[in-house]
Design goal:
- This protein is α/β, with parallel strands linked by helices and about 240 residues long.
- It has one domain: P-loop containing nucleotide triphosphate hydrolases (Rossmann fold, 3-Layer(aba) Sandwich).
- Helix content is about 35%, strand content about 25%.
- The chain has 8 helices and 9 strands.
- The protein has helices at about 50-55, 95-105, 110-125, 140-150, 170-185, 195-200, 220-225, 230-235; strands at about 10-20, 25-35, 40-45, 65-70, 80-85, 155-160, 190, 205-210, 215-220.
- The strands form 2 sheets. It has a 6-stranded mixed sheet with strand order 5-6-7-3-8-9, with helices on both faces.
- A hairpin with a 2-residue loop joins strand 8 and strand 9.
- Helix 2 crosses helix 3 and helix 2 (about 95-105) packs parallel to helix 4.
- The longest helix is centred in the C-terminal third of the chain and has 16 residues, at about 170-185.
- The protein is globular and about 50 Å long.
- The N and C termini lie far apart (about 40 Å).
- The relative contact order is 0.20.
- The model has no long low-confidence stretch (mean pLDDT about 95).
Amino acid sequence: MSMRNPAFDLPLMFLDVRIFARGVPILDGISLKLEAGPPTVLIGPNGAGKSTLIRLAMGLVAPTAGRITWGGRAESDGRRRAMMFQRPVMLRRSAAGNVAYALAAAGVDRDAREPGVAELLAEVGLSHVADRPARRLSGGEQQRLALARALARDPQVLFLDEPTASLDPAAIKSVEDIIHAIAQTGVKIVMATHDLGQARRLAGEIVFMLRGTVHECSPAERFFAAPATPEAAAFVRGDLVI
């Protein structure tokens, strides 16, 4: 995989962002700066706001208050950002057909789509199932195919929401290997996970969220060696944190 263009949408900044649903705060006063570099991994208990923060960054939900800037700009068309959901929907076509559709949606010229499909399937280790119906692939293969579809946008920033939930260890490793390889090409990875082991393996930076707030943000090595707050320390120990 070659180095992609610099991420002009970075730094991505959340400035006192709040989201309320029926008067209940889902995100409450989020101020956070995400910069180019190694993966940023969002961790925290269920309901902490990790998925909502990712959806907000992708423009899938709007803030109730506060603002977001991309590369210092108040507006961004978002064409160089992509997201992979926890349970991506496979189209009723082959693995290659799924990627071809994603390339077309990304505006890739028709003549470039066939070689683009081959390159992306190879990138995620799925060349051997190119003609197989996507919905008949294993769970791990479907997640890798979803990564290929996301990469069809040639993203500068890639958001991943629990990308290995419910997968077996072998499938988790294959997906993590691809995520690591993508990060090495210069793509900024922002990922939510409930798996502390995965966070240790992949993160360059940890954002610990609790009750809709950013409770702690620090380099991964420092976070796991010496969490700055009692709540973060308890979470790292595996204690129940609510």
